[in-house]
């Protein structure tokens, strides 16, 4: 009874080595986040800014350490700026006591 049908010796990548391939990869999330951030400067900044930040954060692997992909960092920073500008605009601008 040595085998039981688990041929891991013949197929070393058949169990647990290939990883899960479900969901978008980090490059795609970084590009989508960058597009959301740039589009958020023109319309729906309050929605697209946080969406860009989430996409950038997920594309960076949910960590700050290491060298992450550049589009992910761009999406995160532009999404934060976009969200901040949308909140300022919603508050009436810098002349109405918000800033």
What topology emerges from the helices and strands here?
Elements: H1 26-40, H2 45-59, H3 70-90
Helix pairs in contact: 1-2, 1-3, 2-3
In DSSP terms (H or I, runs of 4 or more residues), the helix count works out at 3
How far apart are the first and last residues' alpha carbons, in Å?
A: 76 Å
Order of helices and strands: HHH
Report strand %: under 5%
Would you tell me the overall average pLDDT?
79
The helix content is 40-55%
Strand element count: 0
Shape by Cα distribution: elongated
How is the biggest beta sheet arranged? Answer: none
Q: Strand pairing plus helix content: what structural class?
A: mainly alpha
Unreliable stretches, pLDDT < 50, 5 or more residues?
none
What is the quaternary state of this protein?
A: single chain
**What is the alpha-carbon Rg in Å?**
21 Å
What does this structure look like?
This protein has 99 residues and is mainly alpha-helical. It has three helices and no strands. It starts with 25 loop residues before the first helix and ends in a 9-residue tail after the last helix.
Short key terms for the protein model shown above:
99 residues, mainly alpha, single chain, 3 helices, 52% helix
């Amino acid at each position: 009874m040595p085998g039981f049908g688990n041929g891991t010796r013949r197929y070393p990548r058949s169990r647990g080595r290939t990883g899960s391939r479900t969901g978008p990869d980090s490059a795609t999330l970084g590009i989508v986040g960058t597009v959301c951030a740039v589009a958020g400067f023109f319309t729906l900044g309050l929605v697209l800014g946080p969406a860009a930040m989430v996409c950038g954060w997920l594309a960076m692997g949910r960590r700050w350490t290491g060298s992450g992909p550049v589009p992910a960092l761009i999406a995160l920073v532009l999404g934060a700026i976009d969200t901040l500008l949308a909140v300022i605009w919603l508050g009436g601008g810098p002349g109405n006591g918000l800033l």
